[in-house]
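Re-running the complex after MR caught last week's input typo. The corrected sequence lines follow. Everything else is unchanged.
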Amino acid sequence: NAGVTQTPKFRILKIGQSMTLQCTQDMNHNYMYWYRQDPGMGLKLIYYSVGAGITDKGEVPNGYNVSRSTTEDFPLRLELAAPSQTSVYFCAGGADSSPLHFGNGTRLTVT
Amino acid sequence: AQTVTQSQPEMSVQEAETVTLSCTYDTSESDYYLFWYKQPPSRQMILVIRQEAYKQQNATENRFSVNFQKAAKSFSLKISDSQLGDAAMYFCAYRSAWGTDKLIFGTGTRLQVFP
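Corrected-run output:
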C-alpha cells in the first residue's frame, strides 16, 4: 500500500551542486505534481504532468526540471542548487476528481 | 487565476471545545472542488474533508464539518470536540473541476490545542 513514495527524506547540498528528487507512485494516477513548501507557507506548484511524456510549468518552475518517461515516475532535477531552493518538497499524484495523494516530503537544505 | 486566502495564521482551542478555521477563495469558475488538508509535525499532508461546489449540502467527516458559502466564496472548517491530536497546520485548497487537477493552497492556519 505504498501510494506516493519520495526519496530521499533529507538532503544537504552545497551551492552549485545538482541532485534529483525521486518520486514514484503505484496507483496508476495520470496526474503528478511537485510542490515546494517554504517555512510557514503553503505549497506552491513547481511542475506538473498530466501523463507520460507530458510536463508543464507551475507557479515557481525556475531552477528546476522534470521528466515523465513512465506513468509511475516523476523525478525533479535541481541543476545548480541555490540557497533559495532550501525548502520541503512534496510530490503528489491524482486522477480525475479524486483527492491528491501526497508523498511524505523531502527536506532540502542548500548551504 | 484562482487564489485561496486563509486570514488566520494561528488559532488556539481548548480540548473538547469547538474551533472554526476560515478560508476564502476567488474564482470565476462555477465547478470546482475545495479541500482541507492537515499537516502535523510529521509533515504528512492528510486530507481532512472535501467539498464539491455543485453540492449544496455541507460535507461532514466525524468531528470535522465545513460551512460552504458558494456565493460568498467562503469555505470554513469546524472542528468539534477538539483533541490534542488535532494540533497541526491546516491548509485550505482549491481545485478546478476542469483541466489539470492541480491544487492551489492557502498559506495555512496553525492550530494549537490546549489541555
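None of the earlier attempt is carried over here. The domain at 4-110 of chain A is CATH 2.60.40.10 (Immunoglobulin-like). The radius of gyration of chain A is 13 Å.
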